[in-house]
Amino acid sequence: MNRLFKDKEHLVRVAGLFAAGIVLFVIARALFVPKGFGQYGHYRAGALADVRSKPVVYAGRGACVECHTGEGERLKSGKHKGVGCEACHGALAKHAADPSALKPVKPDPKTLCLTCHQMNVAKPAKFAQIDVKSHMDGGPCTTCHDQHAPDKEPKK
Amino acid sequence: MEEGLLHAVQGYMYPNEVELQWSILIVLYPFTTGLVAGAFILASLERVFNVAAVKPTYRLALLSALAFLIVAPLPLQLHLGHPERSIEMYLTPHTSSAMAMFGFVYLWYLMAVLVLEIWLDYRKDIVLMSRTETGWKKTLYKVLSLGVDNISEESLRIDDKLGRFITIIGIPSAFLLHGYVGFIFGSIKANPWWSSPAMPIVFLFSAIVSGIALVMLMYMAVCVLKGIPIDMPCVDTIARYLFYAFLIDFSIELMDLIHRIYEADESFQSLDFMVHTRLYTSQILIQIVFGTIVPLGFFAFTQLVKLSESARKGIYVLAGCLTLMGIFAMRWNVVIGGQLFSKSFLGYTSYKMDFATKEGLLPAIVLLLLPFAILWVLVKVLPPWEEPHDGAKAETAAA
Amino acid sequence: MNQDRRDFLVRAGKVLVLTAPAAAYWDALAAGKTEPEEPAYRMADHFWGMIVDIDKCIGCGSCVRACKTENNVPLEPFYFRTWVERYHVESLSEHPEVDSPNGGYNGFPEKYAAGDKAKSFFVPKLCNQCAHSPCTQVCPVGATFESPDGAVLIDQTYCLGCRYCVQACPYGCRFIDPRTNTVDKCNLCYHRITKGLTTACCENCPTGARQLVDLKDPRDPVHEFLRTHKVHVLKPHMATGAKLFYNALDGSVR
After folding, report:
1. Candidate from C58, C87, C194 with C-beta closest to A116
2. Does pTM top 0.80 for this prediction?
3. Helix (DSSP H) and strand (DSSP E) numbers for chain B
4. Do B88 and C158 touch (CB under 8 A)?
């Protein structure tokens, strides 16, 4: 044995250092690779649950009409039937969970309606759009239109 | 963040594209790894291809490569959003990601090639110094020698053989080291400025050019500092290899350019406009004219006309500096240039480089100077001045 | 067995038999309203995508606002999970004029005169949820990935912030969140769609220009839609397997 490693002892020590390094690396992998990594693919399986657990901020029409059935029916009968409630009333999942915790603010009919209906050359031609100057000149749209069924007159 | 940046947008950029993602630190990274690969290739010229003339620069080239390789990951760490997580690249590397696999190429090159080769070449001197030094220095050299005192003829012969073998492996490893950096950019199909099969080759040859230029300049500087005469055959040979490498590099880049202009695909108009406006100074003037054509002309001149020693020295210094500037500009034009235009091909943005911020000019300058500081330490611990691995020379160990 | 023991056994038996339903009733009472258990979400049953109908988009920006609200995206004009572009095309040979003021967050102030014979329209953009996503390919650590149900997601605790994925995305839909120094992008409101809701942008789009689709659901109208309409994906030559299908997309769109 001694003859075999004569004059090569330094190389044996280098090899030993490298081997030690590899062992350390393997141990580090075992210790530090997160649990569930690689279960579905090259990622931490727990990330799926992390993303899913984010809070819901918009409740969605279904939640609103559970209580606000009148408005729900009205919407279904008119041109705004595809418009989500929160598109005008803001994000209200908190309100849906606990109505007293968050009172929605009533949108301003002079400005909100125009974000969609103010005339713009890039909007599809058949979309209902008006030039606010020549159409009631900035007066509240709800004077003539029921906001929940805008092709009908507003409810008195 | 910076509303002012919006005013610098010309035409249309996707909203998320307005701010540049990769800064000057990412320019530094291919520059430093390129110097490493180039310096190593020069060293291997002597070891493997027996170009004896460049022997005086052998050890200096290796130590320079090590100094720059140590610094190479630092700009990346500074740039990362979460540097403390960078170990993930070694724990769970994504094998389809060039960046992840590069971590292993780097590690391989550092440990199995460069450190090992330097150690084998210096081992005799380390052991001699462990015998003659005192105090903490003695301990240092004892540790470096791994506690082995044997420097018999046979052991040194084994070292030499193994060292040669490692250098042979080291050449493709150095190619891989910097070719890979080229691939990191060249494999991005989303970016037409980067996406090209020529990218790894272009990066590699420009790396060789920069590394050789660096070692040449440093060798001349070190000789002047130490007051010893510059070995002119050595420097002439280095300059000649630099010239050849530069010719190849220039040809490949020129071919890529002609190809782009001729094919004039969807991206061409946008890129062409960018080169003529926002990238004009750094690409046309600094990289092409003063960083490539002028030094090439100088080197060609020295090859064709017999000049005096002092004239050659002057030209080598000037052309060498211009070369380094040109190669740095090339990295800048690739990294920054690739982010100045919109992937919609309808607009351009600007790169706003701060000074004293995490990714500003100041850390970049520090990181460029740091390898020299490290090299200074390395040269103190492992002086390159003795003749390398001359097995026939009797040990003149200061007993 | 004597009479007492039999009596005891019969009485004990009756008590025992009544205890079980009593306990169950008590449990039900204590638990509150008894609702049917929501079926657990199974990833293998879904493969998500989205349809965007250019003919319906009015550039109101509701989607942009809804997304930023739902997903807590920074409000500065450099960070968008989704945005809307306005195209103004004078003729096919010219480059289109494109703008996206703050991503369309506040809609689009009119800047073109009516009747100028140009073609103009809005194009909503978001992550294309690529089936062969280049961003996933280049991530060095596995911080971004394609989920088994077809959404491209981000593991915020694992991302290094190296920005390689941002460079690799051909559509410009990724950005670095300056508050976390990690990458972020549209993840198809994964936290909503796995609960049976639709995405925030689809929920708030007033014209139905955006529709979430489930390609694995045989009853989803997407199959009929793809069969009967002329649909495009963005940058098809990049072969990203994009699952964002555009109806009536003009050739000038980048």
Report:
1. C58
2. yes
3. 16, 2
4. yes
ipTM of the complex: 0.91
Structural domains counted in chain A: 2
CB contact under 8 A, B99 and C181: no
For chain C, the chains sharing at least 3 beta-carbon pairs closer than 8 angstroms are A, B
User: Contact B15/C78 with Cβ under 8 angstroms?
Assistant: yes
Looking at per-residue pLDDT, the higher value among B335 and B397 belongs to B335
Contacts of A37 in chain C (CB under 8 A): 142
Provide the pLDDT confidence category of residue C12 given band limits of 50, 70 and 90: low
**Tell me, what DSSP letter sits at residue B280?**
I
| Residue B394 banded pLDDT, cuts 50, 70, 90 | very low
Chain B: closest CA distance from residue A10 (Å): 6
Residue A104 DSSP symbol:
P
Residues 6+ apart with CB under 8 A from B141: B126, B127, B129, B130, B133
Q: Kindly report the length of chain B.
A: 399
Q: Residue B232 sits in which domain range?
A: 25-246+355-381
Rounded distance, CA A109 to CA A142, Å?
6
Other chains touching B, judged by 3 or more CB pairs under 8 Å: A, C
One domain for residues C7 and C30: yes
Does C197 sit within 8 Å of A60, measured CB to CB? yes
B145 contacts A7? CB cut-off 8 A:
no
User: Neighbours of A (≥3 Cβ pairs closer than 8 A)?
Assistant: B, C
Pair B62, B43: CB distance under 8 Å: yes
- Set of chain B residues whose Cβ sits within 8 Å of the Cβ of A9: 148, 150
Contact C140 B93 (CB under 8 A): yes
In a domain, B326, yes or no: no
Same domain, C20 and C144: no
Are B158 and A37 within 8 A, CB to CB? no
Shared-domain flag, residues A30 and A95: no
What confidence tier does B3 reach under pLDDT thresholds 50, 70, 90?
low
Q: What is the pLDDT of residues B128-145, one digit of tens each?
A: 999 999 999 999 999 999
Is A35 near chain B, with CB under 8 Å? no
Domain that holds residue A48: 9-52
C5 and C113 assigned to the same domain: no
Give B152's contacts in chain A (Cβ within 8 Å). 7
Return d(Cα B66, Cα B174) in angstroms, integer. 12
In chain A, residues with a C-beta closer than 8 Å to the C-beta of C200 are 57-58
Cα–Cα distance measured from residue B396 to residue B128, given in angstroms and rounded to the nearest whole number: 9
Q: How far apart, in whole angstroms, are the C-alpha atoms of residue C126 and residue C129?
A: 9
Is A81 inside any structural domain? yes
Mean pLDDT across chain B, nearest whole number? 92
Residues A76 and A17 in one domain: no
A135: burial class by Cβ within 10 Å (0-12, 13-18, 19+)?
middle
Q: Does B82 touch chain C (CB under 8 A)?
A: yes
Which of B91, B111, B146 faces A10 most closely, judged by CB atoms?
B146
Q: How far apart are CA B143 and CA B134, in angstroms?
A: 13
Task: Output the CA angle B195-B201-B207, nearest 5 degrees.
Answer: 115
Q: What is the pLDDT of residues C104-138, one digit of tens each?
A: 999 999 999 887 788 999 999 999 999 999 999 99
